[in-house]
Design a protein that fits this description.
mainly alpha, 9 helices, 75% helix
Length: 252
């Protein structure tokens, strides 16, 4: 990719950071459930999850559209390219930067360090794609995870608001599990297999493969937490009496 397109990419990422900053201010003005207002530690978490929910809806649908619009890209993961996919990577990079700054500036780093690690991995990987122009299709496939995150984030918002309808949480619980398999575990497993089998283990290929393997471990850890919390609560350990109001984790 030419230097001009790289400069444009930086500008697009900066614009995305500004968009999510505006969404954060909008979230501050929205009414909050009484269960959130009564617990000061939950206010930041609620606002942060609202912004995360907005990104998941936009990025998840965008990733689906990019693949639907250009399905031929799936046959060329290393070198396939689409303008829509490139814009999506810039958009999500801006979100990860904004969310990292939100965590750090609001002194939530200790309770949300896993998210900072995840965001650092995503940002570094996406920057490498913008510089080289390679493996863009892999990034779009990974961003399908945002479809799953729509229901994962909704799950936590429902828990925090103490929604009076258990049926709504129960329905979302099972939909969330299906989406977790379809849009998080399946794309991740396919890309891990593809990189281990076909991608050269040197340079950018080695860097992205290492990122994928670390992300595999994180996803499986989150999946085990989700199963224990929503389907096997008797297996949970050490959570009684634990105050997690300030944590960003979506699984607890």
């Amino acid at each position: 990719m030419g230097p001009g397109w790289r400069v444009a990419s930086v500008a697009l990422v900066g614009g995305s950071v500004a968009i999510f900053g505006a969404l954060r201010r909008l979230a501050l003005a929205l009414p909050q459930p009484s269960a959130v207002r009564s617990r000061p530690g939950r206010v930041w978490r609620w606002r942060n999850l609202l912004v995360s929910f907005a990104h998941s809806v936009l990025a998840g649908l965008w990733a689906l559209f990019s693949i639907w619009h250009s399905p031929e890209l799936l046959s060329d993961i290393p070198d396939g390219y689409s303008v829509s996919g490139h814009l999506l990577v810039c958009f999500s990079s801006g979100y990860f930067i904004h969310d990292s700054l939100d965590i750090i500036f609001n002194h939530q780093s200790r309770s949300s360090w896993e998210y900072l690690v995840h965001h650092a991995m995503a940002i570094s990987a996406f920057v490498s794609l913008m510089i080289t122009g390679r493996f863009l299709v892999a990034a779009v496939l990974l961003l399908l995870v945002e479809v799953s995150n729509i229901f994962l984030t909704a799950r936590m918002l429902l828990k925090m608001s103490n929604v009076p309808s258990p049926a709504l949480y129960e329905a979302n619980k099972y939909i969330n599990l299906v989406m977790y398999f379809a849009f998080r575990l399946a794309p991740q497993a396919y890309l891990t297999w593809y990189f281990l089998r076909y991608v050269e283990v040197q340079g950018q290929g080695a860097f992205l493969t290492a990122n994928l393997l670390l992300l595999d471990a994180m996803i499986l850890m989150y999946f085990s937490r989700l199963l224990r919390s929503d389907f096997f609560p008797s297996l949970r350990k050490g959570s009684a009496g634990r105050d997690v109001d300030g944590e960003k984790f979506l699984i607890d």
